[in-house]
């Protein structure tokens, strides 16, 4: 399983902002620090702001800061927000599934358990834990 770059950028943005709690952080700082696309980061920051993870301040001396304490930002919540789905196998999506084994396959249950275990680990981790 691999998380999308959108999720990666979201987590990186939160980490960078969280490491600088005493000031406003700019998109340019984050993109320069991580060497990532500014256009993508602008979309990420907009989404994080719209969902209450960060506060944004517009204007020449604007920037962003965490909208919550790092202990209140759970990594699982960010992943759920930013991943389009957590289908680690085609059979997880009944709408687009073309697997001929769907009615007789016990692998799907194992993969569901694996995904659940993955998410349980993320549910136990806050931004504070990884800062």
From TrEMBL:
Record protein name field: Rrf2 family transcriptional regulator, nitric oxide-sensitive transcriptional repressor
GO molecular function ontology, one term from the record: DNA binding
Any one annotated GO CC term: cytosol
InterPro entries from the UniProt entry: Tscrpt_reg_Rrf2, WH-like_DNA-bd_sf, WH_DNA-bd_sf
Organism classification: Bacteria, Pseudomonadati, Pseudomonadota, Candidatius Mariprofundia, Mariprofundales
Keywords, ordered alphabetically: DNA-binding
Gene3D superfamilies named among the record's database cross-references: Winged helix-like DNA-binding domain superfamily/Winged helix DNA-binding domain
PROSITE patterns assigned to the protein according to its UniProt record, in alphabetical order: HTH_RRF2_2 (PS51197)
């Amino acid at each position: 399983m691999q998380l999308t770059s959108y999720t990666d950028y979201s987590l990186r943005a939160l980490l960078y902002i969280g490491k600088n709690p005493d000031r406003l952080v700019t998109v340019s700082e984050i993109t320069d620090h991580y060497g990532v696309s500014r256009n993508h980061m602008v979309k990420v920051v907009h989404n994080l702001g719209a969902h209450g993870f960060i506060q944004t301040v517009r204007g020449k001396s604007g920037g962003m800061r965490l909208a919550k304490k790092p202990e209140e930002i759970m990594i699982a919540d960010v992943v759920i927000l930013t991943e389009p789905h957590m289908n680690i196998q085609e059979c997880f999506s009944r709408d687009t599934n073309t697997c001929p084994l769907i009615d007789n396959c016990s692998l799907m249950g194992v993969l569901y358990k694996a995904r659940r275990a993955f998410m349980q680990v993320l549910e136990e981790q806050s931004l504070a834990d990884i800062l």
